[in-house]
Amino acid sequence: MSPVKKISVFLACLGLVGCATAPVVPRDTSLYQKHMPKSILVLPPINNTPDIRATYGYVASTTMPIAEAGYYVLPIALVDQTFKENGISNAAEMHQVSAKKLRGIFGADAVMYITITEYGTKYHVISSVTGVAAQAKLVDLNTGALLWEGSAKQVKDSSSGSQSGLLNALINAAVSQVANQSKDDAHNIAQDVNAQLFKPTSQNNQGLLFGPRSIGFQK
Fold it and tell me: Which domain covers residue 145, as residue numbers?
């Protein structure tokens, strides 16, 4: 075979390798299925962002997607109030309470720990970007075993699709910055993040498994 043909074959092989799609490896859910929880305690998230509204702005939308996945979720307000009545007022301290004590106080099967890594709006000259990102893990309260973990992020750019002139863009940016002082734009995006994080799906092995209260539950 001539050198030119050898090079052509080599390049063709590289092309085939480059175009090949890596198979999706199914995640191991055996431990999750073995300790399938019926009820989940969601703790107020730890806020690792500068925005003081993050913890309660985010946690408000966690209940629905978890409940829709087929689990009973303890009322967030009741959980928060119970901690505060026992002298624990911030999320970091709540996350330090032992699994045994959480089980004894709330009677839940599992606890959801959430950490917020991004929350809020960043302003540029003629635009603003609002982002929310979080990490979560589900832990069995009887054994302390990690059943599931995941992360999600959503970003909204105010300049996306905008065709307005520079003056209008500057005015819109100024109005947006003033308006966001009285409202929390990230709160709405948090709903999408929670749906992405917790909704059961086979795509990319993400989301919770269908719980016992879901029609999609498989024993």
Answer: 25-205
Task: Give 110-158 pLDDT, tens digit per residue.
Answer: 999 999 999 988 765 456 788 999 999 999 999 999 999 999 999 988 6
CA dihedral 160, 162, 166, 168 (to 10 degrees): -120
Interacting residues of 176 by C-beta distance below 8 A, sequence separation 6+:
121, 123, 128, 158
Looking at residue 7, its amino acid is I
Crossing angle of helices 99-106 and 76-85, in 10° steps, is: 110
27/70 Cα distance (integer angstroms) = 20
The position carrying tokens 């993050």 is: 54
Does 10 map to a domain? no
Rg of the chain in Å (alpha carbons): 23
pTM for this entry: 0.78
Domain annotation covers residue 3: no
